[in-house]
Amino acid sequence: MHIAVEHLTKRFGAVCANDRLTISFAAGQIHGVLGENGAGKSTLMKLLAGYLQPDEGRILFDHAPRRLSGPGDALAVGVGMVHQEPLDIPAFTALENLLCAAPPGVFRSRRAAQTALQELAERLGFPVDPAARLDQLTVGQRQQIEIMRLLLCGARVLILDEPTTGITAAQARSLFTALRQIAAEGRTVLFVSHKLEEVAELCHTVTVLRNGQVVPPGQLPMPQPQEYLLSLMFGEAGAEPPIYRPLPLIDAPPVWELHRVTARSGTLQLVDLNHRFAAGRIIGLAGLDGSGQQVLLRLLAGQLAPDRGRVLVNGRDLTGAGPIAFRQAGIEYLPADRLRDGMIGALSLTDHFALLQGRGALVDRRAAEEAARQAIAEYQIKATPITPIAALSGGNQQRAMLALVPPDARGILAEQPTRGLDVASARAIWGRLQARRDAGCCVIFASPDLDEIMEYSDEVIVCFAGRIGPPIPRALLSSARLAELIGGVGFDALVEAVA
Questions:
Q1: For 454-495, how does the pLDDT look when each residue is reduced to its tens digit (9 = 90+)?
Q2: Residues 6/43, Cβ–Cβ less than 8 Å
Q3: For 251-291, what is each residue's pLDDT tens digit?
């Protein structure tokens, strides 16, 4: 399907997210869409998928203008969108999610739907069990099911918003193979990403958005020099490499101490943890998806009580005390899913600062608004004090969540802190986290990106099959060695060496 937009404009109050965009996307190709967070990428995709309606301009599908009143209208036309967080029902199986979403008459029976799902899964190379409940699957597996659901429901245009965020390298390779197959069958793929290497590997053309406009006008054929694309996205400053500022490894008091701790979450159990996490460090957690990183973060945040053992925070025994006690002790948790677990999408930054004022009967709204203004200026958040958090781009949501962390926090637990962020936004987040570390905070983060682990960690802890290794100074690691340990090569010897 050929898609074109003409003079498309979308405003949110005083912010013009899309400014008279005119561009087209041909059928049978994979089109990359680049831009920093807040450039207007997600807004454009939501307009094409019916989640938003334009203030001006029009959208043409196969040269016929259509006005979409919702995602159901878009899917009826043939447009489906895969979000960073899959829109599914976790308690249902893969087959049940397909049947719930399918328009009337698409499948004759439950058996026909299952057969169609299995045949498509085989064609795309996705190992899918129709009877598997989605809450037992990884983000990458749920994404595969979402793609197949949209295709089986009639999507001829597939929009993917940062699809490789939070999935493994193997799942990303499988996704790319499937997308090439989908395009080869004549469908249109719009691939929104901030990872230039992925766009260069996968896409036939690229469109760059900056401040709500296409720069330069029209599409660019791929390949293009990476430095040129960076300059289009951010200006000339965008090509500057990130700067790592390590601290000398000196003895520091522990923020957390784990003594003979055993903890379980679902089928994964962490056994006999004896770890010490010192102040003034950035500690990266590396491992395959589901190896124990999230369980450890939840344990350190007080969200998961141990089955046995003791958890000390700043020398105090807080075993089983719960997340409120941990927050009162200076521990902050920044989850990967910003809107489901981190903030309230319908509320503004002012509202969030008001909620943090305490449990008193009165709320100082003026003080909350002033705190929001200061955070917006200090963290360079593209918003007003009253903008709903859900209306912000991913990068601005992440900055807002970090701005809500009290300045005296002793420990910050960050799950994929730069998930879905562009290069500039990721640098800004890491600059803030490094400043927290320099002030004596212990920052522990989990990331599937080994380059990020190697770039920003003072120490690295490898998680493998529910086992948590000892901290390794980054200076003693190479990327190749880290990859081996994540796969289990030499992991036993590493653990035994410090036992």
A1: 999 999 999 988 889 999 998 888 888 888 888 788 888 888
A2: no
A3: 689 999 999 999 988 778 899 999 999 999 999 999 877 78
Inter-CA distances, 385 with 137, 347, 391, Å: 37, 10, 12
To the nearest 10°, report the CA torsion of 268, 269, 274, 278. 30
Q: Is 331 helix (H, G, I), strand (E, B) or coil?
A: strand
Residue 353 carries which side chain, given as an amino acid letter?
F
- Separation between Cα atoms, residue 456 and residue 402, nearest integer Å: 17
Q: Give the predicted TM-score (pTM) of the model.
A: 0.63
394 in Cβ contact with 419 (< 8 Å): yes
Token duo for residue 55: 């203030």
CA distance 138 to 436: 31
**What is the residue type of 12?**
F
Could you give the CA distance from residue 316 to residue 326 in angstroms, rounded to a whole number?
10
The dihedral through the CA atoms of 45, 49, 51, 57 has a sign that is positive
190-194, 242-246, 300-304, 414-418: which range is least confident on average?
Answer: 242-246
SS3 content of the chain, % helix, strand, coil (to 5): 35, 25, 40
Is 197 buried (19+), middle (13-18) or exposed (0-12) by CB count in 10 A? exposed
